[in-house]
Amino acid sequence: MNQPAPPNPSMEPLSRIQVLVAIAATALVLFVVARLWLLLGSVQQISTQLGLHPIGIGILLGTSITIVSGVLYRLWPTYRRSANVYLNYILTPLVLPDVLWLGLLPGISEELLFRGVMLPALGSNWTALILSSLCFGLLHMSDLRQWPYMLWATCVGALLGYSALASGNLLIPVVAHVFTNMVSSLIWKLKVTHWATH
Questions:
Q1: Which helix (H) or strand (E) covers residue 108, if one does?
Q2: Domain count of the fold of the chain
Q3: SS3 126
Q4: What is the per-residue pLDDT across 130-147, written as a single tens digit (0 to 9) for each?
Q5: What pTM did the predictor assign?
């Protein structure tokens, strides 16, 4: 998710419109950076090949990421606190249909930049995978207290990057990323709504 970083506790929370605009603005910036990189550099973007097979692989990968994230959330209190700060700031003002926005914009724009352009620009090798994953992780860290969430995002970035390199198809990490964002956000929103009504 490439949403705005959680603020310092003394700052006011964002409204629904502010969060949606921030998500869209961030996605636009990532799209522009990716396009400029392609135009100004001699980079061959990882291709996107449509088909049921890559969509199925992407859904399986997204399901695996969501399950592991849920296990970490339950078993690692430091990660749970870090994730809650981030998710509470982003998801609390949103309504359930916004999950679609939250899944598509970050999932597509982040994959285009970090896996589609950055990976091949850095050499499509292990070094490129590590560097692009670290950049992806840092995008998800607002301050040092958020290091567990950043560490998780870095690991997810490495897995998504590996899927792009191994398959040569950007659609797989895009589907996995969109699926993970949407399902994780939906579960979190429904859980919070359930707690609020009971």
A1: helix 98-110
A2: 1
A3: helix
A4: 999 999 999 988 778 889
A5: 0.89
